[in-house]
Design goal:
Length: 140
């Protein structure tokens, strides 16, 4: 696969306590372990960054699926919940729930568009078989 774009980011500091910055400087954030994981909190964390990226990417894929199927949709939003926890192997794993809001179409069409987006989205393709992803479709 020839890449058409490559994002570059560097993390420094003490692992999950530190700093992350993209090569263009547009993202420049302090990192902290969440309070729920025994950290101080007060700064973003990798799971939040992953959730924001996945939500934005999936939303774009949803819009692309609707265009490809020549289907008008409205009032769309994607909320990504990224959970982290210990695995049986001794490390940590992720789980994702995507709550996808799709207006202007019936329930069956919304579900079909969300499934099409799930096949298109690079984040979905990267996590498939590695990270449990639950899709929740909300129509209205």
């Amino acid at each position: 696969m020839p890449a058409v774009y490559t994002a570059v980011a560097t993390a420094t500091g003490e692992g999950r306590e530190g700093h992350a910055r993209t090569s263009d400087g547009l993202l420049d954030v302090e990192l902290a372990v969440p309070r729920e994981m025994g950290g101080a909190g007060g700064a973003t964390n990798p799971e939040q960054l992953f959730a924001a990226g996945y939500a934005a990417c999936f939303h774009s894929a949803l819009k692309g699926a609707a265009r490809a199927q020549k289907t008008a949709i409205s009032d769309t939003a994607v909320t990504a919940e990224v959970g982290i926890g210990p695995t049986d192997a001794g490390g940590f794993g992720l789980e994702v729930t995507l709550r996808v809001e799709v207006g202007g179409v019936d329930d069956a069409t919304a579900h079909a568009l969300v499934e099409a987006a799930h096949r298109m989205c690079p984040y979905s393709n990267a996590t498939r078989g590695n990270v449990p992803v639950t899709l929740e479709v909300v129509t209205g």
